Amino acid sequence: MSINDTSANIYPDVDLPEFNAIDKKSKDNGDLLYILVPKDRPEVCPECGSVSVHVHKKQNRSVQDLDNFGHRVGLLIEGRTYRCRDCGNLIRVDYPSLHGRMTKRLVEAIQRDSLNETFAAVADRYHTSITTVATIFNDYTDVLMAEHRFVAPTVLGIDEVHLEDDYRGVFVKVDRTEGRVLEFTKKRTKQSVIGTLRRMEEPQNLQLVTMDMWKPYRDAVNEVFPDVPVVIDHFHVIKNLMRSMDSVRASICRRIKTPDRKALKHNRFLMLRNHEDLTIQQGRDLNTLLEKYPELRNIYLLKETFRDIYSDAESSAEARDMFTEWKQACAEADVRAYDDFIRTVENWSSEIFAYFDYPDMDRTNAQTESLNRRIRTIARDGRGYSFDVLRKKVILNTYRLDSRGRFSFKDFLDE
Question: Where are the domains of the chain?
């Protein structure tokens, strides 16, 4: 069949509605080239309405498509430009299935994958350049970010992530099922946080703010939302507690010159892990460690006793009473390792004990920490991203993931 015969679509698997695929060529390496011709031509001049339209010039167009069963696919489109005999208007036909020198479906695949993967990985998968992927990503995400609304959630988590020798602000919707990053800022100063909070739409939604013990966060929230309670997540409190306890172990470790030092160093996780999470053997190993270093016993037991506050207290008042008893126990045991930790809790007591006043709300920053790990992964894998690219990836990556799930044969077989 002549390639000028547009009456039949010999290769319908190409599946571009504006074209007939009239020929197919292949190479030894599996590459495929389909020859396409447009199904229709313009009948009327869009400028003057004349029906006197003729072919002005044949113009081939090379277009890259998605791979087909692992084989690279190119399309050679035998296009035409047209001219109106009456007004001289040059008519170029636009095809919705095409986007420049790529098919629209290829561009959409690059758009989707570039949100969640590095530009280099996407460029390699679709046989194009990193620059092309970055351009497609930026064009796509500029549209998405224009649609993005920074709406105040019920519970807002404020945190930071350390990237490239600086701290970036992370603002999170705290929700067990729909948690995601709402905003990602270049700085975490008080003024930066204030500006971010004031940009939030529908601020009446906000009922609670969770954060770590960073004073500029608290001051910013109190200035913008003085009536919204601030809660210090127990994750950050326990983290400070663990740091104080581990400093004692580390100081002992530095004094020891025998091979026991290595064992004490490598078994630090036994003291840091929650007691109920230890295996039977790990429990035995911990007891052996505490018997060998009795100065660690009280430190460890007091750590576990403090943790009981979060599991047993049913109100902020009860939590305060338990903390007072815990301080007294530290004094009676002559344990000074927790002095700095005690001062920290006292300085942040309102926010720390407010945690117990909202048992029915998502008030833990554990989800924020999980999102921070994802942010660090994005930044590490895509080293060299500008802050603008990183911000778009962070905000869009955390909720625009591919939701199609795994391929299901059952869905087909049950039809």
Answer: 1-100, 101-148, 155-229+366-383, 234-357
Each as own residue / partner, the long-range contacts of residues 120-127 (CB below 8 Å, 24 or more positions apart, any chain) are 126/64, 126/66, 126/67, 127/64, 127/72
Q: Quote the CA–CA distance of 321 and 266 in Å, as a whole number.
A: 36
> 155-229+366-383 maps to which CATH number?
3.30.420.10
And the tokens for 266?
């490598």
What confidence tens digit (pLDDT) does each residue in 253-266 have? 777 766 666 666 66
| Ramachandran angles phi, psi of 375, nearest 5° | -60, -45
* Alpha helix positions (H), 225-338: 234-255, 260-266, 268-272, 280-292, 295-312, 316-332
Q: Give the other-Cβ count within 10 Å of 86's Cβ.
A: 14
Query: Encoding tokens for residue 358?
Result: 């909202």
| Residue-wise pLDDT tens digits, 142-165 | 999 999 999 999 999 999 999 888
Cα–Cα dist 159/239, whole Å: 14
In angstroms, the Cα distances linking 62 to 98, 133, 251 are 11, 18, 69
Write the CB contacts of 40 (distance below 8 Å, at least 6 apart in sequence).
18
- Exposed/middle/buried for residue 319 (C-beta within 10 Å: 0-12, 13-18, 19+): buried
Containing 202, the helix (H) or strand (E) segment is none
- Cα distance between residue 36 and residue 11, in whole Å: 10
Tell me the whole-structure pTM to 2 decimals. Answer: 0.82
Reported residue count of the chain is 415
Q: Kindly report the backbone phi and psi dihedral angles of residue 160, in degrees, each rounded to the nearest multiple of 5, phi listed first.
A: -140, 160
pLDDT-derived band at 370, boundaries 50, 70, 90 = confident
Residue 364: CB atoms within 10 Å: 19
- Please state, in angstroms and rounded to a whole number, the distance separating the CA atoms of residues 53 and 81: 10
Coil vs helix vs strand at 2:
coil
| Those residues with Cβ within 8 angstroms of residue 120's Cβ, 6 or more apart along the chain or in another chain | 130
CA distance 230 to 158: 10
Nearest by Cα to 237 from 361, 367, 366, 345? 345
> CA dist 410 to 121, 317, 367, 404, Å?
31, 55, 34, 15
